[in-house]
Known about the structure:
Layout: H1 10-20, E1 37-39, E2 42-44, E3 48-50, H2 66-78, E4 82-89, E5 101-102, H3 108-126, E6 133-139, E7 163-164, E8 169-170, H4 180-200, E9 204-207, H5 214-219, H6 232-235, H7 237-249, E10 254-262, E11 267-268, E12 279-280, H8 304-316, E13 318-325, H9 332-335, H10 352-369, E14 374-377, H11 387-396, E15 402-405, H12 407-411, H13 415-422, H14 436-442, H15 460-472
Parallel strand pairs: 3-4, 3-15, 4-5, 4-6, 6-9, 9-10, 10-13, 13-14, 14-15
Antiparallel strand pairs: 1-2, 7-8, 11-12
Helix pairs in contact: 2-3, 4-7
Amino acid sequence: MARYFHFHTAEQLQQTAARLGIDITLQEDLSPLWQPITIGPYRVGNRLCIQPMEGCDGSLDGAPEELTLRRYQRFGAGGAKLIWGEATAVLPEGRANPRQLWLAPHNASSFEKLLVVCRQAHRRVWGDDADLLVGLQLTHSGRYAHFRPLLAMHDPLLDPLTFDRSTGRFVDHHYPLLSDGDLRRIADAFVATARLAWQIGFQFVDVKQCHRYLLNELLAARLRSGPYGGCLENRTRLAREIIQGIRREVPGLLIFTRLNVFDGVPFRVPPGRPEAPGEPWPFTTPVLSAWGTNPENPLEPDLTEPLLWIAEMRQLGVDVVNVSMGNPYASPHLTRPFEYPPPDGYEPPEHPLMGVARHFQLTEKVQRSFPELVVVGSGYSYLQEFAFHAAAANLARRRVSIVGIGRAALAQPDFVYQLRQHGRLERRRVCRTFSYCTALMRSKHHPLGQFPTGCPPFDKEVYGPIWQQAQRR
Length: 473
Ligand SMILES: Cc1cc2nc3c(=O)[nH]c(=O)nc-3n(C[C@H](O)[C@H](O)[C@H](O)COP(=O)(O)O)c2cc1C
């Protein structure tokens, strides 16, 4: 399979972008990265955010453990001024893996430790943490709950791909849905967990509405009946109730959201042709079970509803929107453009630069629609050593307010330090998007379902042996 990333200079990358007809500009001047920004009562010291990335390394009762603490210590020391803590379940049955974090009174002190470790590390390297903002992504995994899928609706596209490990079967139309009462209890859990996060000292929570977890599935629940399905007002009801509940009960806490603006459809390896580019699973139009998606051509985004919902969330008091898209299990090329797929994935169905450009373009649409809103962009890691030149250009052109860095931060958590000291990343630790991190998460051969994840090639000391163990299995 031909590979795509062979750019040695910014000119080469931009020539390919021009040939593909996409808008990726790079600039040498990195100064836009270092401009502070105000969010609510806080001054945030630069325009760089560590994206939420779970490590599947908590204890079985949801507490951060040694590897989790190490990750936040490294992120804290790294120098990005917005640290968007990873997916943290609000209920144990809502966890996406048995070692996903789950915040509850019994383990609150461990989360407090995580926050202390992160802030201390930041102060040690940067002298002051007054302009560092740290929060937590609150989640319920819904369809992707580890122990048993918890569905908000029957999705003709995703049901046949949703495996119930408690029965060893795929979900079908007889599978029970979460009731309206179940959803209300989940909303209460979001609010209670947000209160706990605030008591611990997190400055914001993210009411997670992306990657087809529960609140994202509800946004697309045209096919559900009752108060939480059908029209847009109903589909946004649960998230609205959660946001209002947090506003009312924890007024000091900032509310952010990571939002899919485009779900799209699932992709697969073409049958019998594992080397060929991935292709969409067959679908019939109109596709009604995808959010931010043109029902007649579901390969195409339609931001009409996401923009209406963002306008309403602004009124409800949401301060920051982190734009994402796709489904990490079913359409990972949308969420995180990659050079090499994970073992359960497919070859890129498009030049991965197209995926990066889609992120930039849809994020720009949100930012231009709401010039005062703080918008975080995603999908930069594929650009490797050019990521921060694209970040600077996007900031300078006001296509985005803050740039989020995911996989690249696992490979080189001190990227801000490197950029500040040397004006560029350390070349031998640049993420090459080879999907080792996802491969570890997806490996089914660990007794607990998944291996803890990090960056085996560039954080060898810790993740090298874990990678070897995964391979042996
Ligand atoms: C190992 C790993 C864990 C992730 N965990 C989360 C998560 O907890 N919450 C979330 O919203 N996104 C999660 N993501 C997605 C990233 O936040 C990010 O959107 C994605 O990797 C694309 O950004 P990048 O190109 O900078 O890597 C995860 C990604 C990876 C690779």
